[in-house]
Protein backbone atom coordinates (compact mmCIF):
# COMPACT_ATOMS: atom_id res chain seq x y z
CA UNK A 1 0.00 0.00 0.00
CA UNK A 2 1.25 3.47 -0.86
CA UNK A 3 1.83 5.82 2.07
CA UNK A 4 -0.12 8.62 0.39
CA UNK A 5 -2.81 8.23 -2.18
CA UNK A 6 -4.46 11.13 -3.97
CA UNK A 7 -7.58 10.03 -5.86
CA UNK A 8 -9.33 12.25 -8.43
CA UNK A 9 -8.85 15.38 -6.35
CA UNK A 10 -10.52 18.56 -7.61
CA UNK A 11 -10.29 22.04 -6.05
CA UNK A 12 -12.11 25.08 -7.37
CA UNK A 13 -11.95 28.71 -6.33
CA UNK A 14 -15.24 30.21 -7.60
CA UNK A 15 -15.35 29.05 -11.20
CA UNK A 16 -11.56 28.60 -11.50
CA UNK A 17 -10.27 25.02 -11.27
CA UNK A 18 -6.92 25.15 -9.44
CA UNK A 19 -6.50 21.36 -9.15
CA UNK A 20 -8.20 19.35 -11.86
CA UNK A 21 -8.76 15.67 -11.15
CA UNK A 22 -5.30 14.76 -9.86
CA UNK A 23 -4.56 11.14 -8.95
CA UNK A 24 -1.16 9.94 -7.79
CA UNK A 25 0.43 7.95 -5.03
CA UNK A 26 3.61 8.41 -3.01
CA UNK A 27 5.53 5.50 -1.51
CA UNK A 28 6.91 5.45 2.04
CA UNK A 29 10.44 6.85 2.13
CA UNK A 30 10.11 8.66 -1.17
CA UNK A 31 11.37 12.15 -1.97
CA UNK A 32 8.48 13.20 -4.21
CA UNK A 33 8.30 16.56 -5.98
CA UNK A 34 5.41 18.56 -7.40
CA UNK A 35 6.99 20.73 -10.08
CA UNK A 36 5.36 23.34 -12.26
CA UNK A 37 5.16 27.00 -13.20
CA UNK A 38 3.56 29.60 -10.97
CA UNK A 39 -0.19 29.10 -10.71
CA UNK A 40 -0.24 25.44 -11.83
CA UNK A 41 -1.90 24.33 -8.59
CA UNK A 42 1.00 22.67 -6.77
CA UNK A 43 0.67 24.72 -3.57
CA UNK A 44 -3.09 24.18 -3.51
CA UNK A 45 -2.51 20.43 -3.75
CA UNK A 46 0.06 20.60 -0.94
CA UNK A 47 -2.32 22.62 1.22
CA UNK A 48 -4.96 19.93 0.77
CA UNK A 49 -2.45 17.30 1.95
CA UNK A 50 -1.79 19.42 5.04
CA UNK A 51 -5.52 19.91 5.62
CA UNK A 52 -5.47 23.72 5.19
CA UNK A 53 -7.83 23.34 2.22
CA UNK A 54 -10.53 20.74 1.54
CA UNK A 55 -10.92 19.10 -1.88
CA UNK A 56 -14.27 19.75 -3.62
CA UNK A 57 -14.22 16.14 -4.71
CA UNK A 58 -11.85 13.19 -4.60
CA UNK A 59 -10.00 11.60 -1.72
CA UNK A 60 -6.71 11.90 0.10
CA UNK A 61 -5.63 8.76 1.95
CA UNK A 62 -2.68 8.50 4.31
CA UNK A 63 -1.68 4.97 5.32
CA UNK A 64 -4.99 3.92 3.76
CA UNK A 65 -7.03 6.26 5.99
CA UNK A 66 -9.28 8.92 4.46
CA UNK A 67 -8.13 12.36 5.68
CA UNK A 68 -11.27 14.33 4.83
CA UNK A 69 -12.49 14.50 8.43
CA UNK A 70 -9.02 14.91 9.99
CA UNK A 71 -8.08 18.53 10.86
CA UNK A 72 -4.52 19.75 10.09
CA UNK A 73 -3.26 19.46 13.69
CA UNK A 74 -4.42 15.85 13.93
CA UNK A 75 -2.68 14.72 10.73
CA UNK A 76 0.76 13.09 11.05
CA UNK A 77 1.93 15.70 8.58
CA UNK A 78 4.06 18.85 8.96
CA UNK A 79 4.84 21.65 6.54
CA UNK A 80 8.01 23.66 6.04
CA UNK A 81 7.40 27.02 4.37
CA UNK A 82 9.66 29.35 2.44
CA UNK A 83 9.77 31.92 5.25
CA UNK A 84 10.91 29.60 8.10
CA UNK A 85 8.11 30.66 10.52
CA UNK A 86 10.27 30.23 13.64
CA UNK A 87 9.34 31.73 17.03
CA UNK A 88 11.69 34.76 17.30
CA UNK A 89 11.71 34.87 21.12
CA UNK A 90 12.73 31.21 21.48
CA UNK A 91 16.21 29.75 21.09
CA UNK A 92 16.94 27.18 18.40
CA UNK A 93 16.59 24.42 21.00
CA UNK A 94 13.28 25.77 22.29
CA UNK A 95 11.96 26.10 18.75
CA UNK A 96 12.79 22.50 17.91
CA UNK A 97 11.46 21.24 21.27
CA UNK A 98 8.19 23.15 20.97
CA UNK A 99 6.01 20.47 19.30
CA UNK A 100 7.17 17.86 21.84
CA UNK A 101 6.45 20.20 24.75
CA UNK A 102 2.96 20.83 23.41
CA UNK A 103 2.46 17.08 23.13
CA UNK A 104 3.41 16.71 26.82
CA UNK A 105 6.62 14.73 26.40
CA UNK A 106 8.85 14.29 29.48
CA UNK A 107 11.87 16.62 29.67
CA UNK A 108 14.56 13.95 29.32
CA UNK A 109 12.84 12.45 26.29
CA UNK A 110 12.51 15.90 24.72
CA UNK A 111 16.21 16.59 25.32
CA UNK A 112 17.29 13.33 23.70
CA UNK A 113 15.05 13.83 20.68
CA UNK A 114 16.09 17.47 20.17
CA UNK A 115 19.78 16.49 20.43
CA UNK A 116 19.26 13.92 17.70
CA UNK A 117 17.45 16.30 15.37
CA UNK A 118 19.98 19.12 15.88
CA UNK A 119 22.69 16.64 14.97
CA UNK A 120 20.74 15.54 11.88
CA UNK A 121 20.65 19.14 10.62
CA UNK A 122 24.23 19.84 11.82
CA UNK A 123 23.22 22.56 14.31
CA UNK A 124 24.33 20.94 17.56
CA UNK A 125 26.50 23.95 18.45
CA UNK A 126 23.72 26.48 17.76
CA UNK A 127 21.11 25.35 20.30
CA UNK A 128 21.34 28.51 22.44
CA UNK A 129 21.13 30.99 19.59
CA UNK A 130 18.03 32.92 18.60
CA UNK A 131 16.69 32.87 15.02
CA UNK A 132 17.90 36.43 14.28
CA UNK A 133 21.46 35.28 15.09
CA UNK A 134 21.38 32.65 12.33
CA UNK A 135 21.77 32.79 8.54
CA UNK A 136 18.85 32.04 6.22
CA UNK A 137 20.10 28.51 5.51
CA UNK A 138 20.59 27.80 9.21
CA UNK A 139 17.12 29.11 10.06
CA UNK A 140 15.62 26.86 7.42
CA UNK A 141 17.48 23.90 8.96
CA UNK A 142 15.95 24.77 12.35
CA UNK A 143 12.50 24.89 10.75
CA UNK A 144 13.10 21.47 9.17
CA UNK A 145 14.37 20.01 12.47
CA UNK A 146 11.25 21.31 14.24
CA UNK A 147 9.00 19.82 11.56
CA UNK A 148 10.71 16.42 11.89
CA UNK A 149 11.10 16.29 15.66
CA UNK A 150 7.92 14.30 16.35
CA UNK A 151 8.55 12.00 13.37
CA UNK A 152 5.59 12.81 11.11
CA UNK A 153 4.59 10.27 8.46
CA UNK A 154 4.86 12.98 5.83
CA UNK A 155 6.86 16.19 5.56
CA UNK A 156 5.54 18.79 3.13
CA UNK A 157 8.02 21.39 1.91
CA UNK A 158 6.70 24.44 0.05
CA UNK A 159 9.57 26.07 -1.90
CA UNK A 160 11.73 25.91 1.24
CA UNK A 161 14.93 27.10 -0.46
CA UNK A 162 13.59 29.90 -2.63
CA UNK A 163 14.58 32.66 -0.18
CA UNK A 164 18.25 31.59 -0.28
CA UNK A 165 20.91 32.72 -2.74
CA UNK A 166 22.04 30.33 -5.48
CA UNK A 167 25.16 28.98 -3.74
CA UNK A 168 23.45 28.37 -0.42
CA UNK A 169 20.52 26.79 -2.22
CA UNK A 170 22.86 24.24 -3.79
CA UNK A 171 24.42 23.45 -0.40
CA UNK A 172 20.98 23.06 1.16
CA UNK A 173 19.90 20.73 -1.67
CA UNK A 174 22.70 18.36 -0.73
CA UNK A 175 21.76 18.63 2.93
CA UNK A 176 18.12 17.87 2.18
CA UNK A 177 19.04 14.76 0.17
CA UNK A 178 21.22 13.47 3.00
CA UNK A 179 18.75 14.40 5.71
CA UNK A 180 15.88 12.64 3.95
CA UNK A 181 18.02 9.51 3.51
CA UNK A 182 18.98 9.62 7.17
CA UNK A 183 15.55 10.16 8.71
CA UNK A 184 13.72 8.04 6.12
CA UNK A 185 10.59 10.22 6.34
CA UNK A 186 8.55 10.71 3.16
CA UNK A 187 8.99 14.19 1.66
CA UNK A 188 6.54 15.90 -0.68
CA UNK A 189 8.35 18.92 -2.06
CA UNK A 190 6.89 21.81 -4.05
CA UNK A 191 9.06 23.84 -6.40
CA UNK A 192 8.95 25.71 -9.70
CA UNK A 193 12.73 25.19 -10.07
CA UNK A 194 13.28 22.30 -12.48
CA UNK A 195 16.98 21.95 -11.61
CA UNK A 196 16.12 21.57 -7.95
CA UNK A 197 13.45 18.97 -8.73
CA UNK A 198 15.82 16.92 -10.89
CA UNK A 199 18.57 17.04 -8.27
CA UNK A 200 16.48 16.15 -5.23
CA UNK A 201 13.68 13.83 -6.19
CA UNK A 202 13.12 10.13 -6.49
CA UNK A 203 10.08 10.94 -8.62
CA UNK A 204 8.59 14.14 -10.01
CA UNK A 205 5.02 15.06 -10.97
CA UNK A 206 5.19 17.87 -13.54
CA UNK A 207 2.01 19.98 -13.31
CA UNK A 208 0.36 22.61 -15.48
CA UNK A 209 -3.14 24.07 -15.34
CA UNK A 210 -4.08 21.99 -12.31
CA UNK A 211 -3.18 18.67 -13.94
CA UNK A 212 -0.27 16.25 -13.85
CA UNK A 213 1.42 16.28 -17.26
CA UNK A 214 3.97 13.56 -16.49
CA UNK A 215 4.94 11.56 -13.41
CA UNK A 216 8.25 9.77 -13.57
CA UNK A 217 11.84 9.49 -12.31
CA UNK A 218 14.02 12.55 -13.06
CA UNK A 219 15.96 10.76 -15.83
CA UNK A 220 12.75 10.10 -17.77
CA UNK A 221 11.26 13.52 -17.13
CA UNK A 222 14.40 15.05 -18.63
CA UNK A 223 15.32 12.43 -21.22
CA UNK A 224 11.93 11.20 -22.31
CA UNK A 225 9.42 14.03 -21.98
CA UNK A 226 5.87 12.99 -22.74
CA UNK A 227 4.72 16.19 -24.38
CA UNK A 228 5.85 19.59 -25.53
CA UNK A 229 5.02 21.28 -22.23
CA UNK A 230 7.32 18.95 -20.27
CA UNK A 231 10.11 19.17 -22.88
CA UNK A 232 9.98 22.98 -22.83
CA UNK A 233 9.62 23.40 -19.09
CA UNK A 234 12.43 21.05 -18.03
CA UNK A 235 15.86 22.35 -18.99
CA UNK A 236 16.80 23.75 -22.36
CA UNK A 237 15.24 21.96 -25.32
CA UNK A 238 15.07 22.48 -29.06
CA UNK A 239 11.53 21.90 -30.28
CA UNK A 240 11.51 21.56 -34.08
CA UNK A 241 8.26 21.44 -36.01
CA UNK A 242 7.89 18.45 -38.31
CA UNK A 243 5.69 15.84 -39.97
CA UNK A 244 5.94 12.05 -40.03
CA UNK A 245 7.03 10.86 -43.49
CA UNK A 246 7.46 7.12 -42.94
CA UNK A 247 7.32 4.61 -40.08
CA UNK A 248 9.55 1.57 -40.22
CA UNK A 249 9.55 -0.66 -37.13
CA UNK A 250 11.50 1.02 -34.33
CA UNK A 251 12.41 4.06 -36.37
CA UNK A 252 10.63 6.64 -38.45
CA UNK A 253 11.47 9.46 -40.82
CA UNK A 254 10.24 12.95 -40.07
CA UNK A 255 10.42 16.03 -42.22
CA UNK A 256 11.66 18.96 -40.14
CA UNK A 257 10.05 22.12 -41.47
CA UNK A 258 12.47 24.06 -43.67
CA UNK A 259 15.35 21.66 -43.00
CA UNK A 260 14.66 18.25 -44.53
CA UNK A 261 14.17 14.65 -43.50
CA UNK A 262 15.78 12.96 -40.48
CA UNK A 263 15.54 9.53 -38.94
CA UNK A 264 14.24 9.32 -35.37
CA UNK A 265 12.82 6.76 -32.92
CA UNK A 266 9.30 5.62 -33.72
CA UNK A 267 6.74 6.60 -31.08
CA UNK A 268 3.28 5.33 -30.19
CA UNK A 269 0.55 6.85 -32.32
CA UNK A 270 2.85 7.64 -35.25
CA UNK A 271 1.18 7.78 -38.66
CA UNK A 272 2.31 9.17 -41.99
CA UNK A 273 1.33 12.81 -42.37
CA UNK A 274 0.88 13.41 -38.62
CA UNK A 275 2.41 16.71 -37.43
CA UNK A 276 4.44 17.07 -34.24
CA UNK A 277 7.70 18.35 -32.77
CA UNK A 278 11.14 16.87 -32.45
CA UNK A 279 12.43 17.60 -28.94
CA UNK A 280 16.20 17.62 -28.78
CA UNK A 281 18.49 18.60 -25.91
CA UNK A 282 21.39 20.96 -26.76
CA UNK A 283 24.01 18.67 -25.18
CA UNK A 284 23.00 15.81 -27.51
CA UNK A 285 23.99 17.80 -30.59
CA UNK A 286 27.46 17.70 -32.13
CA UNK A 287 28.80 20.91 -33.59
CA UNK A 288 31.90 21.47 -35.69
CA UNK A 289 33.18 23.16 -38.84
CA UNK A 290 32.88 19.79 -40.53
CA UNK A 291 31.24 16.58 -39.37
CA UNK A 292 31.06 13.17 -41.07
CA UNK A 293 27.65 12.41 -42.60
CA UNK A 294 26.93 9.10 -40.79
CA UNK A 295 23.95 6.82 -41.54
CA UNK A 296 22.65 6.83 -37.94
CA UNK A 297 22.82 10.58 -37.61
CA UNK A 298 20.74 13.54 -38.63
CA UNK A 299 22.98 16.15 -40.18
CA UNK A 300 22.42 19.81 -41.15
CA UNK A 301 24.58 22.66 -42.32
CA UNK A 302 24.14 26.03 -40.65
CA UNK A 303 25.61 29.29 -39.51
CA UNK A 304 26.36 30.56 -36.00
CA UNK A 305 23.61 33.01 -35.07
CA UNK A 306 24.61 33.75 -31.44
CA UNK A 307 27.24 32.71 -28.90
CA UNK A 308 26.61 32.83 -25.15
CA UNK A 309 29.72 32.30 -23.04
CA UNK A 310 28.73 30.79 -19.67
CA UNK A 311 32.16 29.93 -18.26
CA UNK A 312 32.09 26.15 -18.13
CA UNK A 313 30.21 25.89 -21.43
CA UNK A 314 29.35 28.10 -24.37
CA UNK A 315 25.89 28.02 -25.94
CA UNK A 316 25.98 28.31 -29.72
CA UNK A 317 22.71 29.07 -31.51
CA UNK A 318 22.92 27.75 -35.06
CA UNK A 319 20.59 28.83 -37.87
CA UNK A 320 20.02 25.68 -39.94
CA UNK A 321 17.32 27.09 -42.22
CA UNK A 322 15.64 30.43 -42.65
CA UNK A 323 14.34 31.23 -39.14
CA UNK A 324 15.04 27.72 -37.77
CA UNK A 325 17.43 27.96 -34.83
CA UNK A 326 19.06 25.04 -33.02
CA UNK A 327 20.68 25.56 -29.64
CA UNK A 328 23.88 23.59 -29.07
CA UNK A 329 26.32 23.55 -26.20
CA UNK A 330 30.04 22.83 -26.03
CA UNK A 331 32.13 22.43 -22.86
CA UNK A 332 35.01 24.88 -22.65
CA UNK A 333 37.47 22.11 -21.83
CA UNK A 334 40.53 23.09 -23.84
CA UNK A 335 42.90 25.27 -21.78
CA UNK A 336 43.29 28.73 -23.26
CA UNK A 337 40.37 28.40 -25.68
CA UNK A 338 37.30 30.23 -24.42
CA UNK A 339 35.25 30.08 -27.58
CA UNK A 340 35.36 27.74 -30.57
CA UNK A 341 33.20 29.72 -33.02
CA UNK A 342 32.10 33.25 -33.76
CA UNK A 343 28.93 34.80 -35.14
CA UNK A 344 28.35 33.89 -38.81
CA UNK A 345 30.86 31.00 -38.89
CA UNK A 346 29.70 28.23 -41.18
CA UNK A 347 29.23 25.05 -39.15
CA UNK A 348 27.59 21.64 -39.22
CA UNK A 349 25.35 20.05 -36.60
CA UNK A 350 24.52 16.38 -36.17
CA UNK A 351 22.80 14.10 -33.66
CA UNK A 352 22.15 10.40 -33.34
CA UNK A 353 18.72 9.29 -34.50
CA UNK A 354 17.81 8.17 -30.96
CA UNK A 355 18.90 11.43 -29.27
CA UNK A 356 15.58 13.21 -29.73
CA UNK A 357 11.91 12.40 -29.12
CA UNK A 358 9.12 13.14 -31.56
CA UNK A 359 6.08 14.47 -29.70
CA UNK A 360 2.51 14.73 -30.93
CA UNK A 361 1.07 16.98 -28.19
P1 LIG B 1 3.04 29.52 -7.02
O1 LIG B 1 4.31 28.81 -7.31
O2 LIG B 1 2.97 30.89 -7.66
O3 LIG B 1 2.62 29.50 -5.60
P2 LIG B 1 1.25 27.33 -7.54
O4 LIG B 1 1.50 26.41 -8.66
O5 LIG B 1 1.62 26.86 -6.21
O6 LIG B 1 1.90 28.73 -7.84
P3 LIG B 1 -1.37 27.70 -6.46
O7 LIG B 1 -0.91 28.61 -5.36
O8 LIG B 1 -1.76 26.34 -6.13
O9 LIG B 1 -0.28 27.67 -7.62
O10 LIG B 1 -2.56 28.42 -7.21
C1 LIG B 1 -3.21 27.84 -8.32
C2 LIG B 1 -4.25 28.82 -8.82
O11 LIG B 1 -5.31 28.92 -7.88
C3 LIG B 1 -3.72 30.23 -9.03
O12 LIG B 1 -4.27 30.75 -10.22
C4 LIG B 1 -4.20 30.98 -7.82
O13 LIG B 1 -4.43 32.34 -8.13
C5 LIG B 1 -5.50 30.27 -7.49
N1 LIG B 1 -5.76 30.30 -6.04
C6 LIG B 1 -5.01 29.73 -5.07
N2 LIG B 1 -5.55 29.92 -3.85
C7 LIG B 1 -6.69 30.66 -4.06
C8 LIG B 1 -7.71 31.19 -3.19
N3 LIG B 1 -7.66 30.99 -1.86
N4 LIG B 1 -8.70 31.89 -3.76
C9 LIG B 1 -8.77 32.07 -5.11
N5 LIG B 1 -7.84 31.59 -5.98
C10 LIG B 1 -6.82 30.89 -5.47
Explained architecture:
The chain folds into two domains: 4-231, P-loop containing nucleotide triphosphate hydrolases (Rossmann fold, 3-Layer(aba) Sandwich), CATH 3.40.50.300; 236-359, OB fold (Dihydrolipoamide Acetyltransferase, E2P) (Beta Barrel), CATH 2.40.50. By secondary structure, the chain is α+β, with helices and mostly antiparallel strands. A hairpin with a 3-residue loop joins β16 and β17 (313-321). A six-stranded mixed beta sheet has the order 6-7-8-3-9-10, sandwiched between helices. Strands 13-12-11-14-20 form a five-stranded antiparallel beta sheet. A five-stranded antiparallel beta sheet has the order 15-19-16-17-18, with no helix packed on it. The protein is built from eight helices and 20 strands. Residues 13, 18, 36, 38-44, 192 line the site of adenosine-5'-triphosphate. The site of adenosine-5'-triphosphate has 11 residues, from α1. It catalyses: ATP + H2O + polyamine-[polyamine-binding protein]Side 1 = ADP + phosphate + polyamineSide 2 + [polyamine-binding protein]Side 1. The complex is composed of two ATP-binding proteins (PotA), two transmembrane proteins (PotB and PotC) and a solute-binding protein (PotD).
Helix-strand blueprint:
Layout: E1 4-13, E2 16-26, E3 31-35, H1 42-50, E4 57-62, E5 65-66, E6 77-80, H2 92-102, H3 107-120, H4 136-148, E7 154-158, H5 166-183, E8 186-191, H6 194-200, E9 203-208, E10 211-216, H7 218-223, H8 228-233, E11 238-248, E12 251-256, E13 260-265, E14 275-280, E15 286-288, E16 297-309, E17 313-321, E18 324-331, E19 346-352, E20 357-359
Parallel strand pairs: 3-8, 3-9, 6-7, 7-8
Antiparallel strand pairs: 1-2, 1-4, 4-5, 9-10, 11-12, 11-14, 12-13, 14-20, 15-19, 16-17, 16-19, 17-18
The structure holds adenosine-5'-triphosphate.
Amino acid sequence: MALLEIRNVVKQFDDFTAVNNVSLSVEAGEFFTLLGPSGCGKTTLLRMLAGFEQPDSGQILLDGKDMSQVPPEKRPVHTVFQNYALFPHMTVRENVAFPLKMAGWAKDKIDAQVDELLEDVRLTRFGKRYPHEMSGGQRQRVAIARALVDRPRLLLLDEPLSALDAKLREEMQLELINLQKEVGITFVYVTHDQGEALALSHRIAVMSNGQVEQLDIPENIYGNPKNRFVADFIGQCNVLEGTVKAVDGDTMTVDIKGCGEVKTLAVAGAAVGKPGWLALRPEKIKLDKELPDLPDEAYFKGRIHDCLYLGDVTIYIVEVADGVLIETMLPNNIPGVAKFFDDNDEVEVAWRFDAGRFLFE
